[in-house]
């Protein structure tokens, strides 16, 4: 947020990331990589781990709805391909909810995270 004020999604227009054209390329590349028929989850497990998931979840607090949408799609794909990470992903999303309820005043990605949990009971 260029003004430095707290972003209120109900009152403020979303602040679009100026570097989005560059970020979009990275998100699209990573998404296509995960969706590729040649993608090997056994090799990727070395890199897409608990630490990676936690860092990915931190990005959901972005003010830019385009970024949150790509993150949601990416996390959907990871959830679908990495069965060993499913329980950890659900627990980690629940932890984000608990932080939002008890510690933070706001979190921009709550709706997207709810969508993810709603799709995978």
From TrEMBL:
GO cellular component, one term: protein phosphatase type 2A complex
GO aspect biological process, one term: signal transduction
Pfam families for the chain: B56
Matching InterPro entries: ARM-like, ARM-type_fold, PP2A_B56
One function term, GO molecular function aspect: protein phosphatase regulator activity
Coiled-coil region: none
Name of the protein this chain belongs to: Serine/threonine-protein phosphatase 2A 56 kDa regulatory subunit gamma isoform
Organism the protein comes from: Lunasporangiospora selenospora
């Amino acid at each position: 947020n260029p003004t430095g004020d707290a972003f209120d999604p109900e009152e403020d227009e979303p602040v679009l990331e100026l570097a989005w054209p560059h970020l979009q390329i990275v998100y699209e590349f990573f998404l296509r990589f995960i969706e590729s028929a040649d993608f090997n989850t056994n090799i990727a497990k070395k890199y897409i781990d608990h630490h990676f998931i936690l860092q990915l979840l931190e990005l959901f607090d972005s003010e830019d709805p385009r970024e949150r949408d790509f993150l949601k799609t990416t996390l959907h794909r990871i959830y679908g391909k990495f069965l060993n990470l499913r329980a950890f992903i659900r627990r980690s999303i629940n932890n984000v909810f608990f932080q939002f309820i008890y510690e933070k005043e706001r979190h921009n990605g709550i709706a997207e995270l709810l969508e993810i949990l709603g799709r995978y009971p």
